[in-house]
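ingest -> fold -> write
write: protein_1
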Amino acid sequence: MTRPAADDVRFRVLQELSADPNISQRELSDRLGVSLGRMNYCLRALIEKGLLKTESFRASDNKLRYAYLLTPRGLSERSRLAHGFLMRKMAEYEALKAEIATLQRDFPPPEPGAAPREEGPGNRRESDE
């Protein structure tokens, strides 16, 4: 079983490549906030697993570049990873909603026109001590 963080990176890579197969490794690593070395490792692993294939082409500056194309297995894996990604994000969302509700209950906003709350002994600032 893979780690959720690794699944998230793989999903995001497959998602970006399905939208823009001609993207460079450097631009992809910048978009996803991972190192170029990690991106290279991830792309090689996806190619070895048969989820991606590469096609070379000439860029406008006459340099050889690669297009990363999702294979049928890659499309299937992207769908599987999307489901897990969505479930994790929904769980994070529910946890955040619960935390916000607790904070709103514990620290209600002041009523309009009310004087600021006085600081009690447990609410002193470090500079006051």
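write: protein_2
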Amino acid sequence: MPVKPWETYRANLSIDLGKHHVPKTFLDKVAFITVKILRIPTDIFFQPKWYERLLVLTVQGVFFNAFFVLYLLSPKLAHRIVGYLEEEAIHSYTEYLRDIDDGKIENVPAPVIAIDYWRLLKDATLKDVITVIRADEAHHRDVNHFASDIHYEGKKLREAPAPLGYH
């Protein structure tokens, strides 16, 4: 019986935590600062109350529509912002892993749905799940910065596929 691809898949966990796209152009700097500003409410609110949850829903609605318009006006800026958002996610997951290692968060068995989705070993733990999620975020970071670079070169994404092994 032939082996199916999903039976042999193993997540690529190799990421460069030191990798950071340095903002050089004006639009890069705007994207970087935008992401840093978006992090401020997260740092302020830890235990959300009902009105804070309502605020989050409202901000998400505004952000979705604003981002849609932004992407129509400047796909390169939109991809750059998403790349920086992914960098923030990598940072957050790295802190989460540090808390697991330091014993602040219990390293419980991984939920079955995570084991199935990420194709983890049956005895996988929370740390294994967070590790593959962080690697996925790193991939998203790289792809979005790559897409922005392609737009900066004046090309369409379909004209410049990412090289094999790009991550």
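write: annotation protein_2
The first helix runs from residue 5 to 8.
The chain is about 65% helix and 0% strand.
pipeline exit 0
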